[in-house]
Amino acid sequence: MFIVYIIDCIISSLIYLIPLVLAVAFYTLAERKIMASIQRRQGPKIIGFWGLLQPLVDGLKLVIKEIIAPSRSNSLIFLISPMLSASISFASRSLIPFSGNGPFAPVKMNLLLVFVLSSLNVYSLILAGWSSNSKYALLGSLRAAAQLISYEIVFGLALVIIVFFTGTANLTEIVFFQYHQYNFLPLLPVAIIFFVLMFAETNRAPFDLPEAESEIVAGYNVEYASITFAMFFLAEYSNMILMSALWVILFLGGWHNPFTSLISDFGNSKSYLPLIGNIFFIKIFLFLFIFVLVRAILPRYRFDQLMWACWQAMFPVLLGFFILLTGYFISGGFTDMSMLNNQDEHNTTVYTLSSDRYVTKTRSAFWVSRIRY
């Protein structure tokens, strides 16, 4: 039985990892094609029809190349750092639910765990720069530490507002909470700031200071090559998919399709899994396209501008919004007591998510149910 369990775990892991790796590979091709179109050039077109096999060839090249480590580097940490970065990225991706059936890893407070794992990624970058025994790599890792730690505070405050507003830290329940109204309407300032945070958290332009090629020669990963460099590359693009999915879940209703009434009962969502998956992926593809568009048209910030945007622009706005939201709750904005006696008249049907978790249709009834129980 133990051998069967091990085989089952291996097969499940491959089913989870292979689509993710292929998605990252072909996303790099789409990025190169889109940027080539914006810059009036052709992009990859030789390997395969319209260059479709270019990602596979690039991946094969990185796999078969020799792993080279600097002579005076800490070889063990040098090799562990990219594996740590890729592992954290894959683990975070397993917490994202792509349908009402829940994520690959069944964790109740998965939003909190996503935040914890994204915070841990800074350790892999610092260790990579320090263990390389290179001044350029060390400078890139210091930039990465300053940037990620600063923006993690703003990122955490934005997630606190989401949890406070929806009353749950479960991503599936947050999607159900948006059945009648998406969160980006009442939380528009938070949605805009979280959209900017996506670029800072993934070290993408215009917040790619840790990898500024013109200044520090690719930063913390300058000494890496072959499969070790591919792991950093894979982690970065996987984080872009993760952040896009997270924004869609938190502010754009996740897999919910507002243009159809087929999904009228969350308990029967398995019957409409293809439809659910398609609308969710369409939303994610939109944000992945925006990632490429921003890289192609916006210049890189200076480091002082980067810190100014974090501490003097985003953080005060989020903190002020959180104080206003707290005051609104305390003043009774979501606790209309007439709802207690006339719940049926206010469309407060309760959907069962599990044996001990409930979500109501309307925001008022949701907070009333929290107060009552």
Order of helices and strands: HHHHHHHHHHHEEH
Strand sequence of the main sheet, in spatial order?
A: 1-2
Return the domain count: 2
The total strand number stands at 2
* Cα shape: globular
Beta-strand content estimate: under 5%
Helix/strand/pairing class, anyone? Answer: mainly alpha
Q: Estimate the mean pLDDT confidence.
A: 81
Radius of gyration: 22 Å
Q: In this structure, how is the largest beta sheet organized?
A: 2 strands, antiparallel
If helices are DSSP runs of H or I spanning 4 or more residues, what is the number of helices?
12
Question: Can you offer a commentary on this structure?
Answer:
The protein has helices at residues 2-38, 54-64, 75-93, 110-131, 135-166, 171-177, 188-201, 213-216, 226-251, 273-297, 303-330, 363-372; strands at residues 350-352, 358-360. Mean pLDDT is 81; it is low at 261-277 and 335-373. Strands 1-2 form a two-stranded antiparallel sheet. With 373 residues, the chain is mainly alpha-helical.
From the structure above, extract its key features.
globular; 373 residues; disordered C terminus; 12 helices
What is the strand and helix layout of this fold?
Blueprint lengths: L1 H37 L15 H11 L10 H19 L16 H22 L3 H32 L4 H7 L10 H14 L11 H4 L9 H26 L21 H25 L5 H28 L19 E3 L5 E3 L2 H10 L1
Antiparallel strand pairs: 1-2
